[in-house]
Amino acid sequence: MFGFGQDIGIDLGTATVIAYVKGKGIVLREPSVVAVNNQTGEVLAVGAEARRMLGRTPGSIVATRPLKDGVISNYTVTEKMLKHFITRACGKTMFSPRIMICIPSQVTEVEKKAVIDAATQAGARRVYLIEEPIAAAIGAGIDISKPCGNMVVDIGGGTADIAVISLGGSVVSTSIKVAGDKFDEAIVKYIKKTHNMMIGERTAEDLKVNIGCVYPKIQDTEMEVKGRDLMTGLPKMATIHSSEMLEALLEPAQAILEAVHSVLEKTPPELAADISDRGIYMTGGGCLVDGLDKLLQEQTGINVMIAEDAVSCVALGTGKALDNLDILDGKARK
Predict the structure, then answer these.
(1) pLDDT at position 104, please?
(2) CATH class of residue range 180-248
(3) φ and ψ at 204, to 5 degrees?
């Protein structure tokens, strides 16, 4: 008997790839990192295994993230990574799957085409695209088909997408390239400047997750980190406090607040009234930086809620959107 391939929703993130298979839920959550042999072009590791190699590879092996700022920066590696993840999500199947992929809200036609081509080459029968804020809103459990305004702030690894959604589409949206990765860069820069020490991006991420904050904490927490002393060139250890993280992360956090502000300024008054009643929903891993919701609430005066499973929101929304490709009105169609 002939059947069709599975339907898969993929949140193709700068930091993490999450795959949702219709009827099974989330089946895969891996870092979007690929380790490639320079000489042969062979893929040595994908996902968590490749992430462990970041900053620790010999000359012949390169561990890279093929997506930068939410868009494809290395086409061939992205295609190989997608192929690997699709095979893992589907298992061995005779039929090619239909795939829906999330993209930031302000991508160009060329960037869209790159995503469609990469997924098609990786084995998709048909590719649909959905904007991240819309997928995030669906994943957060918001009914986007009604004629009332909902504001979603989706902060991922490469981009922060802010959109006001009504009647199933975004009315006003913006996408800025300030998100989780920029937080990590700000930490690396800050520690270089104040402690004269160089740390890697994985260490910076650990600092962000464990003691990072953008709103003053009641109790100052601390963490020990190891890096390289810039004066002597020798390994060095330092104790970093959350008050220092506050100083390091305030600048990128401010850029996100300004983007939210500019979207609110362009929002039609009726929808702005809805938002002040319903509040702002935050999704994505980047919104989990301690105090970001408090800071946004203080600056806008609007109630801010972090979605239940913030990291998986976009993937869950993509998965739900698979059930009703027709409701999306063919907008996501290739």
Answers:
(1) 87
(2) alpha beta
(3) -60, -40
> CB–CB of 174/259 below 8 Å?
yes
Among 244, 275, 271, 252, which residue's Cα sits nearest to residue 159? 252
How buried is 193 (Cβ within 10 angstroms: 0-12 exposed, 13-18 middle, 19+ buried)? Answer: exposed
Q: Which CATH number fits domain 146-178+253-308: 3.30.420.40, 2.60.40.1180, 3.40.50.620, 3.90.79.10?
A: 3.30.420.40
CA 73 to chain CA centroid, Å, is 15
In the structure encoding, which two tokens stand for residue 77, read together? Answer: 């590696």
DSSP type of residue 330: T
Same fold, 146-178+253-308 and 180-248: no
Spatial separation of the C-alpha atoms in residues 96 and 13, rounded to whole Å: 22
Domain ranges for the chain, please list them: 7-134+314-323, 146-178+253-308, 180-248
Query: Which helix (H) or strand (E) covers residue 37, if one does?
Result: strand 34-37
Token pair of 326 as six digits: 């027709």
Q: What is the pTM of this model?
A: 0.88
Q: What is the pLDDT of residue 325?
A: 61
State how far the Cα of 195 lies from the Cα of 225, in Å rounded to an integer. 11
pLDDT number for residue 332: 44
**Number of Cβ atoms within 10 Å of the Cβ of 79:** 20
Is 3.30.420.40 the CATH classification of the domain at 7-134+314-323? yes
Q: Residue 3's pLDDT is what?
A: 39
User: What does pLDDT average to in each consecutive run of 10 residues of the chain (334 residues)?
Assistant: 65 90 88 90 89 85 87 88 88 79 88 91 88 92 90 93 92 93 95 94 92 91 94 94 94 95 95 94 93 94 93 90 63 47
